[in-house]
Amino acid sequence: MPRTTRHLSLAKGLQLNLRHAPHLKRSAAALRVHAGSHDAPACWPGLAHFLEHLLFLGTARFALADGLMRHVQGLGGEVNASTAERHTDFFFEVPPAGLDGALLRLCDMLAAPQLDLQRQRREREVIHAEFIAWSRDHQAQRRFALLQAVSPRHPLSGFQAGNRYSLPLQAPAFQQALRGYYRRFYQGGQITLSLTGPQSLDELEQLACRHAALFPYGTRLLPETPAPLRDGPLRLRRAPAPHCDLLFAHEALPAGALQALELLLGLLRDNRPGGWQAKLRRRGWLQACSAQPLYANAGQLLWHIELHLTAAASPSQVKHLLEGWLGFIRQQDLQRLNATFGDRQMQCALAASALQLARRDSAGQPLQALDQSALAALDALLDDLPRRNLGSWQLPADEPLLTKLLESHAPLPAGLVIDHGLPACRQFAALYLRWHIGSPLRQRFQVIAERALVSLRERAEQAAVQLSFTAAGEYWQLQVSGLPDAVIRASGEALQRLSRPAAEDWHGEVGERPPQMPIRALLDALPGALQASAATPQPACILDQTLLDGLWQQARWQGLAVGFDEARYGALGAALHGIMGQPHRPDPAPYLAERHWLSVDAPGEQAALLLFCPLPPELQAAGRLLGHLLQGPVYQRLRVELQLGYAVFSGFRQVAGYGGLLFGVQSPQTGHGELLGHLLTLLGEGVRLDPLARQQLAEQFDEPAMGNAEVAEWAWQTRLAGEEPALPRLRRAILDTEQDHLDALLGQLLDAHYGWLCLANQATPPDRWPWARAS
């Protein structure tokens, strides 16, 4: 069997990981610089993160308008970067033909940055805006509080975010430190580059060697021995009820400790009978559980379990039961646990994107079973955890979602449409089911439906299946995607749980939703705002199975299956047998036809604004091209020139069957009216048609060039809008769009000819709005 991976050390000292994955439709690069916030001088907090931002601002060879971000976005790819404590990651995913140009730009921007003061001043304000948002983000502050539990001598307990005051640009010492950090760490010996795609290993190696030659020679620097995570018991503050935090710190673990923890957390998250979570849920103690690593470096490991308990729970007993379960796991055959883990990792690898695979390789965590070093780390990790002989436990059986389907010959339900736009050879399938729920009880039953799916969703995630249940207006939607057989099994189980929730799902407590960043809250509210229905009084009654049966009998549903071959139709029909409600294909929702203002409860002092401009189907090709051409100018004006905020985005989006242009911004210092004014001013300036950009956009709408999930979602949204999905027709329409079409469409947008929906975290529109009437 031909090899699919290759690992090399290049002449400049750079470590290279290559992965040939012929089933992939895209290629990806993940470049890790082995230095992060803890490697920068402690007197300049945020320096490493600041440098990461500066590197995206253009080079002598590639100006900002032709740099990595604009280039990848123009190809319909994705690009980002992140700074952690001991490493900085840069990564992107593009169509295979775009890998060469994108990799050249990535290496060039890291090897030859321009660090002039003008760029630094501009980007420091962006860092400061991020700091303000970070300081008010619930999850970020929760993590920061957890890190304060370690020894104050360890850099984890310090401030690393960076802001306007920790980055004194005029100080010569700061400039010397910034350039010194760059020269010390942005060299070949400190870099690991991982490439993944359908290209051959030889082709990937040639690309990597050509572009990695831009880096100067270097050797891997030995990091300083970190201070201990503990100088006694962890200083963990007691979380307010109903939350409970469990924090674990380890020292001197063998290499591979993070992979070992991944195996352990997979067992811990398994909520099937026999495990810790199942016992807590059976006692009525557990509402939700999450577990994740917080830090891993040089044999040190810090990880966290966050529990949302019911009022009946005993936190001390919860902890004792965990120790009993850990004692049981310690007694198991680690080779057997690893074999099961390896099978699951293999499934995840089949379902993973090019970017996910490249990032895992770059981090030294490929989706595979533990090697001998990681097995030794697992042994040491389990030895270091508190354990006792308490409780009766068992290992979970084989995950049903990953078992082979039995042959079935059930017919497909009448309301299900089969879409053939995604070939079965892609080994990716998606199922969409949407119910119109007319009963005013839908809001109360929605809580029960969500609880009924919690444990299944957690299991599905472990099996590389994405399962979501959403509610917007009078609609409920179930979406399941991943490997085809697993999707069929997960869908059948989801329908059973929705139709007949378990006893504990009827009376559980309502989980508390942590506050979100304002712009994220607006995005989550957009589908419901587009499908808003008149409020109806809630009947005073006790919910029971009979009422739920009645709700489902009156429901009307439509569905779409994408990526299934005919051999699986019988199994899919069996999974959907008895689906609730009556099949129905409703007419597309009417367009807004006027300007609407909607206030969204999104706490926070920063102003957040979304402007969605829906378009009828016949104008959506022109709308896509307009959004494509506006993406760069909107970012340049609002983010770079005006520095209004760091959360700036724009583009064409399909939401709840509506297609249109979406603009978003969150700003720490600019009000809603001014934000909208800047946006409308920019739109009023018009755009110039770029034939090359038009060609690039049209090429993105070809099934081999699109991500599998993207193909499925496009087909679903297009059908919700009442259209038949046809990628060739969309490509032709984009190529037929001319300058006069764009000019006319811009005029219609500014006049709100097809309506506007403006969402903001402000109760009323500002005084001076560009319309006379607001809803």
Automatic annotation (TrEMBL):
Domain Coenzyme PQQ synthesis protein F C-terminal lobe as annotated: residue spans: 429-561
Query: Listed GO molecular functions?
Result: metalloendopeptidase activity; zinc ion binding
Provide the Peptidase M16 N-terminal domain boundaries. 19-149
Q: What region holds the Peptidase M16 C-terminal domain?
A: 176-331
Q: Does the keyword Transmembrane apply?
A: no
Per its UniProt record, the required cofactor names are:
Zn(2+)
> What InterPro entries does its record include?
Metalloenz_LuxS/M16, Pept_M16_N, Pept_M16_Zn_BS, Peptidase_M16, Peptidase_M16_C, PQQ_synth_PqqF, PqqF-like_C_4, PqqF_C_3
Q: Which UniProt keywords apply?
A: Hydrolase, Metal-binding, Metalloprotease, PQQ biosynthesis, Protease, Zinc
Look up the record and name the pathway of this protein. Cofactor biosynthesis; pyrroloquinoline quinone biosynthesis
Query: Which stretches make up the Coenzyme PQQ synthesis protein F-like C-terminal lobe domain?
Result: 625-699
Q: Does the keyword Ion transport apply?
A: no
Q: Name one GO biological process term.
A: proteolysis
> Record's GO cellular component, any one?
cytoplasm
Entry's family note = Belongs to the peptidase M16 family.
* Role of this protein: Required for coenzyme pyrroloquinoline quinone (PQQ) biosynthesis. It is thought that this protein is a protease that cleaves peptides bond in a small peptide (gene pqqA), providing the glutamate and tyrosine residues which are necessary for the synthesis of PQQ.
Designated name of the protein: Coenzyme PQQ synthesis protein F
